[in-house]
Amino acid sequence: ETSHPSHKPDDMNPLLLQVFRSVVWVYSVLTFLPWYLLSGAGVNLERSRRVKARSVSGRPAGPYRATDQLRGIQQKLVSSMHPGVDTLDKVMEHGAARFPRRDCLGTREVLSEEDELQPNGKVFKKVILGEYKWMSYEETYQAAVHFGSGLAALGQKPQCNIAIFCETRAEWMIAAQAGFIYNFPLVTLYATLGGPAIAHGLNETEITHIVTSKDLLQSRLKAILLEVPRLQHIIVVDSKPTSWPGFPRGIMVHNMDAVQELGSRPNNSKEEPLPSDTAVIMYTSGSTGIPKGVMISHSNIIAGITGMAERIPNLDETDTYIGYLPLAHVLELSAEMVCISHGCRIGYSSPQTLADQSTKIKKGSKGDTSVLKPTLMAAVPEIMDRIYKNVMTKVEEMSSVQRTLFVLAYNYKMEQISKGYSTPLCDRLVFKKVRSLLGGHIRVLLSGGAPLSAATQRFMNICLCCPVGQGYGLTETSGAGTISESGYYSTDKPNPRGEILIGGPNVTMGYYKKQSEDFLVDASGQRWFCTGDIGEFHTDGCLKIIDRKKDLVKLQAGEYVSLGKVEAVLKNCSFVDNICAYANSDQSYVIGFVVPNQKQLTILAEQRGLRGSWEEICNHPEMERDVLRILTEAALSAKLERFEIPKKIRLSAEPWTPETGLVTDAFKLKRKELKSHYQDDIERMYGGK
Length: 689
Fold this sequence. Notes:
The protein is of the alpha/beta class. Among the domains are: 55-75 and 474-549, Luciferase, Domain 3 (Luciferase, domain 3); 88-315 and 326-334, Rossmann fold, CATH 3.40.50; 555-687, 2-Layer Sandwich (GMP Synthetase, Chain A, domain 3). The chain is built from 22 helices and 29 strands. The chain crosses the membrane at residues 24-45. Residues 127-483 form the AMP-dependent synthetase/ligase domain.
């Protein structure tokens, strides 16, 4: 473990834990004996220990397939969840037919906005939000039909690309459904991409129509309009204002409501998509250079969401999903399509309004999870790491009695889970408050987009009282495949290791207007994608991601360092909000760039008698030395090798956000941009300047 509060959950005195265990056992026998007898602990243990996947070829190199799909080696992988629902327009149509009056898409009403002056002089915009307003499945379907018809009236043609450049919101999904219904392939772009990347995507896909928001039109799109000569129509999803002056000649700006009204007149003819037609050209976040457009067919997405749905137990129309991750990311789009296929409610949120403590929520008012009370949620590790650190900081602020009770309950529950039991008493008395951070009703939490540390996953499982699953996939594909090559070998003992290749009907059509050696077709016609990730298959069939080909750096003395491994270990330190490890092959040691936790570092500075602005504290050599010492201790306790531990660090006063261009929308590090940003510091730390 590398969490840094002085009372880590698993550092409790064994005698105290034994006393606590005895007290809880006596209480449970008296109060919860019927529940224990019916808990099915044996079944839970048997299920957790089962073999999840095995090689269908009998060879360590695979390919591997989930055992619940192995009813015969020749059997095809699942490709659809409902008979006849083989394109995405039919998914929405199926939902509207089965659940016409059920809530589908929900948006919170904005009651008021105000500016709040912070102690550092910055002004933050705060909002007070009301209840969720809902569109039914039938209303959502009709809105999509009318919007698609209106787009056709504006000259949008079937199988001609249309762009969506918009924040995650109900209108994004309505526009997407319109595209699916009328066979307009969607070009999706992250809302945080820079001007050149946006222009590149729009020009490469020859966009004439784009759906966007008022804010993004003014802040990002308007500045590059002259660089996108084919663009003719801009559709703004906000209902106000109704006039848009000051745009280049030849470009017309419309409101979404007006386009829907246009489409409510006699229907324009539409062309139904085929499963093999392109549904989405999804531009990557550009973590390794200029974004690439991944061509995803209707059948690709159907296969992907079918696999996802099979891993969510008891999914049905009583579930509520909270949508706040970028819909331009395959994880969020897939999750929402799974929900629509099963009649779930989708309530929209944002990272700034998610919880009561979120940055845009006025103190004393409710965040979105408190109002929506979702049962399903997807998250990226950045969000989950933030919750973990916030809770552990609050634990440190507790009285010694409260802190001891929390740690005892944590370790007791961890022990009980390992035996297959639940802990209703601890959940009710100790973890209820933590669970309420996300509304109190989450039953399945899916993490994706980047690796989640073992410490954070265990913490979320215990304190949120629900299973936390890590999804592994890429824009280019989803699901697990097989392994081979790359300095790791399928013959490695005790477990076969190598690069992960993924095959199946979910593997996409390739990159738009680009050839790539990452996509392969074998002799049987099976399509594969080479992920660049290094995996290890355990004896129970679990796939563990252990490395990234591009994250491996060979130091001067010949040692291999996995930068991702170093970052995953050190990111759990309470002094670290984010970290990027860096190494040159012509150097003998690793260095690091660290975004420190402001609260922890400020306390440390006060203890050292240091005063000044936040930037001055971060730039102080004594602070760098202290944080480096803390990181070294964390690294050693996590059993990192000496050559893996950074010898020098640079503290960054500015956080890394998608807006800075240093991380993607999924908060993955952009190593190329980070290297460029910190080039002077790299030269200083390696050159001794």
